[in-house]
Amino acid sequence: MAKQYDVLFRLLLLGDSGVGKTCMLRRFTEGEFDPSHISTIGVDFKMKTIEIDGLRVRVQIWDTAGQERYQTITKQYYRRAQGIIFVYDITDRASFQHIAKWAGDVDENAPDDVQTILVGNKADEECSRQVTKEQGQKLAETYGMEFFEASASTSSNISESFIRVTELVLQAQKRDVDNLLGSLDSYLDQVALQEEKSSQDNHTQRTCAC
Amino acid sequence: MDQSIAIQETLAKEENCIVAAQCEILLEDFSESRLLGLVECSKEHAIFIYSHRRMAITADDVSLEDIVPISLDFAVVEVSSAEQLVVVGADTRVRMSYKDEELELTLPFGSQSRLFLCEVNKAWSDVCRSPAQVPKFEWINKYKKAIKSQESVKQFIAPLEEFSNKVNQHQEMEKVSDKKGSLEKVKTSNSVTPKPKGNSSQENQSREERDDLVRSSSHTTSNKAQILAMPQFGLRDNLIKCELLKNEDLYTYLENFSFFLGTYNVNGQTPKESLRPWLSCTLKPPDIYCLGFQELDLSKEAFFFNDTPKELEWTKAVSDALHAEAQYALVKLVRLVGIMLIFYVKKEHAEFISDVETDYVGTGIMGRMGNKGAVAIRFRFHNSDICVVNSHLAAHVEEYERRNQDFKDICSRLQFRQLDPTQPPLTIMKHDVVLWIGDLNYRISDLDVDKVKDLITKNDFETLHSYDQLKRQIDEEAVFVGFEEGEIDFQPTYKYDTGSDKWDTSEKCRIPAWCDRILWKGKNIQQEHYQSHMAVRTSDHKPVSSLFIIGIKRVNSEAYKKTFEEIVRNIDKMENECIPSLSLSKREFHFKDVKYMQHQAEALSLFNDGQVPCQFEFIQKPNESTYSKPWLTANPSKGFIPQGGSMVIELEVFVNRSTAPDLNCGKQEIEDILVLHLERGKDYFISVTGNYLPSCFGTSIYSLCHMREPVQDMPIQTLLKLAEMSPDDDSSTAEKPLDIPKELWMMVDHLFRNAVNQEDLFQQPGLRTEFEEIRDCLDSGMPDSLPGSNHSVAEALLLFLDALPEPVIPFSFYQQCLECCSSGAQCEKIVSMLPQCHKNVFSYLAAFLRELLKNSASNGLDVSILVTIFASLLLKSPKKQDLAEKTKTQEFFQHFLN
Ligand SMILES: Nc1nc2c(ncn2[C@@H]2O[C@H](COP(=O)(O)OP(=O)(O)O)[C@@H](O)[C@H]2O)c(=O)[nH]1
Ligand SMILES: [Mg+2]
């Protein structure tokens, strides 16, 4: 049996209060949907194990309070995130417009290599839609993010969104490791080369001495 | 190496070191090795911390530094857990706290550390579970003296508390660089680059190592909850393995394979004839051959040097005689002196054989030598674990109990190494299928030779078998418990004249016996035949064989994946349920009409609705040095709540003279957010709001002089504007200010009219409730005359002066006052330079006090009393005041009372 847990990543859900972050998290980790809205006051997290390319990845997903007045505090949690999922509600134009603000905060507070995606939630509520799919798509493009329309209620695209952002994080981390390993390898090569040279030098000297 | 033995030597008789572990204690910028021992005495537990030299072997190697009792004040938590890429095999970092002391430790990756933490956790949960039984820890006292005499200890513990707090803060901030750090670690452990000192031991251990504690331990649900409460203790993999094992039926199906087992005591002979009659007696080629030999070589060389040419000779003879219709691969051979076991598999099955291990046990001379004993091979075939044992037990008719003992010794001493070195070795009985063959040497007793031979001639093996020692011993459950043996339908295999089928004709004339046997243990095993092979005549024994059809577990990979995912899902779910959690009675608190020096409190009750004990603490927000604004406290601000327990926290608001100035002018409001953090868990935000009623207490003389209305009737913008103006620029205001604050006038005038003859004035305290009435009256202007006793008004006056943000003698004049305190004229000169409103207040107060002194006969006041009381209120140092300065301020003020 292969090694099961190689890595643990931290993901963060961001977006206005009421867009469905907590519901998405519950849907993903527990497979359940509870339509009652108890607004998250504070930060909460859940764990989930997923498989990507045969590698088991544990993700710790943080759900934050969306209320304005808590934002100075919630910002400090951004720093620890490797992946961020921006969420808006397709039936609430304001929540969509606020994505710009959320993205700005992330720019300021999160690590540079943080991976982000955009999710328009409540895609099941087609009749009260206020944000078109194209608008979502376009915004995502502006920020260079991938985009999903999802529904915690029907479960559509929920795991896809979480898994996609985790894949992005994994790729980014792999790049980091590879870079590091690469530079170390070349360093080691260099050291080896120098040693070889100096031993050659010794050798030359000895032949001269004879 | 079990270092608990060294610790045990230092302990009293009734104390018991349960488990020991080495760790690194983190100090400011380096770490030091310590030995930890979990010590138990009459059901109480404590962690003993030792410094040690080398690996501790005896008591001399360790010296006790500190003891941490495991009581309700104790806590241990994993830190830095999810902060970074967590690589399997990483060290475990934990924080232990006891009362106000905290220690931060790193335990090396490995089962010893985990065992230690598990035991500590167990002890701790026991304490938490029955909080009524408060442990006394009397047995620890005797060690205290020893610890004290060692100054060095406290030295390292003390700065540590501070340090570990710092670590907490830093951990968050250094996240980014931390991550890099861990990547570097990945590399260093892969290559042979020199590593920086400090993060030792990690690299020493292979990251491939996995954890254990598994098969042996039974995980009950509560057990699991505990394990999961420590996610990085690495037990997750084991839980999965355990669950996989338990649910094997869901993803495996049985497929039959044929196993040919053979045993042959060759009496030291070399092969002289083909072994085909024995090994190729089956119709179809078997899938697996396991063949055991005994007395392969009886020479001294074989005995002493375990070296014999016969190994090769017999192996060749066997290879030549295997079933001709299939090709076989020799997988493994193991030999102890004359006891040899060979294991072949049909070529096409070879790829499904894994985890092949061997071991042997000598039970011969001195109970150790290899003339008797057993060899064994274990292997995994598809998903079944199989163990084959070939044993040669003690000889002689009467020695059957010795044989029973040999069997037991073999079972307990024979152990197979596991691939994962942290796993405990496997024993014979831990296998799905055990096949036991060999010259077990059990004889036929209570029957004389003739009778035996007679029964054999009659083919009455059933009757004869009832005299068989092995059968009798098994029936008595004295040996081979749980094993089965097929019906014996062949004549005894011992003892023949070599080269013939004739019974032993030597002097000894041995009674025939079924020495050579084949037994099995396990499910889904079908014996197809069990027979001896008379045609083989090389030895004084006949070879025996048995063909088994064994149901081997094969994995359905689809189902395996499904089961595996289900298990992972369940463990995730359990883990999520084990995240510490509280329910809060209220998330928002509103304090109405907060007033100066008036305490208000609200209760926040916490209930631990999670499945684990929980440690909580109010933590600082970014850029703030305390967890709350200075007018707010949470009591207690941190603590521990056992599972299902609850606790009430008082949120207290109290505005004192240092917080009043900003609140009075609206620079600050009653508004704060508390962050209630659970160790290893979520954070809750608690919002605190309220409205503050501004007061003249804590408002500057300058501002008050510009208020003709009571402070609470002033618009807040005006208050803020006044607060931002300086006492020096009087010109800017249109309206002429009051000479002195009307509130001050009201208090002094009240005293002047009512209290000039009052005894003990300024010396007897007033009433709290009266102070509040006086404050409200001054701040709201109602009623016109002050309520309360003279003492209460006098105290209000002192409090008023004390609360002034800028004292009557402003801070900037303080130094000058000290310098010229001896000269009355100079002192007066300084006073004349004060800002107008301050000068007025000073003169007014001095005049009032002089007036009081005129009535000293009735009120008992004198200069020195008044100077002592007022000098420190009128002249305040911006820094801390020392005694000499105090005397000078009194000297200064005294000039004005004469
Ligand atoms: N129709 C629909 N309603 C949703 C969906 N997700 C969440 N909601 C509702 O939106 C409300 C707010 O959800 P919640 O998860 O608490 O939002 P949060 O503040 O972002 O955590 C709840 O009442 C949910 O019932 C969805 O996918 N479809
Ligand atoms: Mg929420």
From TrEMBL, chain A:
GO terms for molecular function: G protein activity; GTP binding; metal ion binding. Its EC number is 3.6.5.2. It is an enzyme of class 3 (hydrolase). GO terms for cellular component: plasma membrane. The keyword Transferase does not apply. It is a lipid-anchor. Keywords: Cell membrane, GTP-binding, Hydrolase, Lipoprotein, Magnesium, Membrane, Metal-binding, Methylation, Nucleotide-binding, Prenylation, Protein transport, Transport. Its cofactor is Mg(2+). PROSITE patterns: RAB, RAS, RHO. GO terms for biological process: protein transport. The small GTPases Rab are key regulators of intracellular membrane trafficking, from the formation of transport vesicles to their fusion with membranes. Rabs cycle between an inactive GDP-bound form and an active GTP-bound form that is able to recruit to membranes different sets of downstream effectors directly responsible for vesicle formation, movement, tethering and fusion. RAB15 may act in concert with RAB3A in regulating aspects of synaptic vesicle membrane flow within the nerve terminal. The GTP bound form of RAB15 interacts with REP15. Interacts (GTP-bound form) with MICAL1, MICAL3, MICALCL, EHBP1 and EHBP1L1. This is Ras-related protein Rab-15. It comes from Cyprinodon variegatus (Sheepshead minnow).
Automatic annotation (TrEMBL), chain B:
Its main location: membrane. The keyword Aminoacyl-tRNA synthetase does not apply. Residues 720-898 form the Rho-GAP domain. One of its GO terms (cellular component) is early endosome membrane. InterPro entries: Endo/exonu/phosph_ase_sf, Ig-like_fold, INPP5B_PH_dom, IP5, IPPc, OCRL-1_2_ASH, OCRL1/INPP5B_INPP5c, Rho_GTPase_activation_prot. GO terms for biological process: cilium assembly; Kupffer's vesicle development; melanosome transport; phosphatidylinositol dephosphorylation; pronephric duct morphogenesis; response to epinephrine; signal transduction. CDD domains: INPP5c_INPP5B, RhoGAP_OCRL1. The keyword DNA damage does not apply. It is found in: Cytoplasmic vesicle, Phagosome membrane; Early endosome membrane. PROSITE patterns: RHOGAP. Belongs to the inositol 1,4,5-trisphosphate 5-phosphatase type II family. This is phosphoinositide 5-phosphatase.
